[in-house]
Design goal:
By secondary structure, the chain is mainly alpha-helical. The chain is built from six helices and no strands.
Length: 136
Amino acid sequence: MLLADFGIALSLRHERAVTRAGTTEYMSPEQLRCPFKRHPSDNKDRTDLHYGLGVDVWATGVLAYELLHGYPPFLGSHREETEQLILTAEVQVAPQLSHGARDFVLSCLNKDPADRPTVMQLLQHTWVRQHMKPLR
C-alpha cells in the first residue's frame, strides 16, 4: 500500500512551519501548540512554534494505529477533547499486537518530536522490513 497526501505541504528549506492545520486526530502535539492564524504571515517569527518532519512521523503512527485498531489513538467526543488527549493521554495499544507493531506505533507517537524516529529509521524498522515487498 502506498499513501500520499499533499493537501498541506510546504518546503522547510524556504519557510518555517507554524500552521495549525489538518485533521485533528492526525495533528501532533507540536502542531496543536500553534495558535490559529488570521494571516499567512502570522507566527512566522515565533521560533518556539516551529515544527519539522516529526509531524509526518506522528501522522504515520496515527495511521498505523488506526489500520491496526480500526480507530485513531486519540478520539474525544469533540475537537477540544481530542486535542487534550493528544497532548496528555498515553497511547493504549491492543495487547495482541506483535512486539514490532507495538514498537513502531509507540515510537511514532512519542509526544517529544526529538525522540521520534526519522522517516529513514522507520523504513529500516524490523516490523516494516519483514512485511515490505520490493516495488516493481
